[in-house]
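Quick start: what a row looks like.
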Amino acid sequence: MRLSLTLLFVLAVSACSAQPPAAKPPIVQAVVRAAGLQGRIMWIDGTANLDNLNTREKMADVMERCRRAGINIVVMDVKPLIGETMYPSKVARQITKYDGKDYDPEYDYLAVALQEGRKRGLEVYAAINVFSEGHKLVGRGLAYDKPEWQAITYNADRTVVTPEGAYPVASSINTLPPAGGMSVYTSDAGSAKTPRPNETYSVIVRDSVQATFPAAGLENGPVPIPAGGCLLVGDGAAGDWMADKLRPGVRVRWEAGVRFANMVQTPAERVSVFINPILREPLEHELAVIREIARNYDIDGIVFDRMRYANLTTDFSNASRTAFEQWSGKILNDWPHDIMRYSPRPNAEVMRGPQFERWLEWRSRNVRRFAEDATRTVRDTRSKAKCAVYVGSWYPVYYSVGVNWAGDEYHAGYDWMTETYHETGYAPLFDWICSGTYYPDPWRADAVQAGRDPEATVEARGELSNTVIDDSTYVYGSVAISDYVGRPAAFKKAVEACTQVTQGVMFFDLSHVIKNSMWPYVDQLFAEPAIPPHSVAELLDRVKNVRKVLPARKAAPPPDENWRLVVPE
């Protein structure tokens, strides 16, 4: 496909210039739309699709279905959360048994995918879950063998105190109580909780018990979670204590202690066992896996997933404390409260310490530094291979996982940013970025009609992704197939939202397409084939050259203090 790049840029820049600065779309979006380019990606989760792709015949069928549907890229997950590989590896364990089933160690899933995909003109990428080296639900992975690799979490050991006694509460909010224990739910978990047998509930508002009652007799009806308050949930013995001590009208107070735990022991992350991303040995292991894939397979590129911290609670190890002190020049005398402190009340925000903003920048610098090493490893090993990354689209709160996926000149002015935070933006390192616009409402108008937040939509998060990435690379929005089961019209609109406000769409994932019989709807999405924009040589370089001569654009202002971003699971 030959493109008149000069004509495209004249049209695109004219379109941008016709709008006021705050509404101006990124140049790359206008250029890609004008050229008819579009990324169309089918993501294939490794363990979720083990039985869907465990023979050449099944692999060939899936690749043919993708080709017929107009997909132009398949992303093969080759290092799932467990940290083991989907191909014969000399540097990592290979998955040969999973969920009680045996898998042929001689079957090279990635090699077969490349062969069958290439026959059909598809780009084939390998995806790896970079900093995940274990799966809690399976109880296996390299991080179990090497616990010193695991990230360390800072947890709040809360206690609910009454005039007649006290009881410990599970440190992780909005999770089921442990056997015989107690947990707390806030409105962040939604407006209600589904009851379970043997549970007891206490509704607490303004530190006063409003009601306490058992699950028995609720007939599976939802248990309301009060806005501005919380719902205590007790299992077994904890429920008996609640029934005795938490009578209506009783006043309670909260206490919060400090507890450090490794990833396997903390409920703050339910599935993945994350490593500490500053430790040399595990980082060298991750680079070895990347190098092995790039060296041994003629891939079109590698997609990095979970190249991040687990959440805001990590990493609070001694190694991280020492490294931060060396980087910042600040001695932390009140660890971890120099960084942050949990409020005793479970429905209150984390309280920021004096080094909180610097800590966020330091974590993002750690991830960017590894991203530099990882992308360099790919390109040095296989020069034509491209590098991509998956991120969540909820940028205003994405600092919680230690990643700044913006362009390195993007200044947003959020109150958690330092003046140099923008230097950690890693978008320019990648050939494209998948932004997880995983929302059940495609357009703002759909959300308004349903009485939901118009910013929690595919459209709004796709637009934000374009703004944040700031013409540094291409961005493809994403549709969670599970959000649209039984809603074919809404599914089509979600794909249209992705392709109209970003430069393409990623479908997550194949297992949901197969399980929910969604192929007929995928088949109807694209009338004509398309080329992904990242496959057009020099196009992005031309965009960046044009940007240099245009007036600086205003960054999107931060949301007002009443705006609450919805983050999907």
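That is the whole record. The chain has two domains: 39-149+275-312+350-531, 152-259. DSSP finds 15 helices and 23 strands in the chain.
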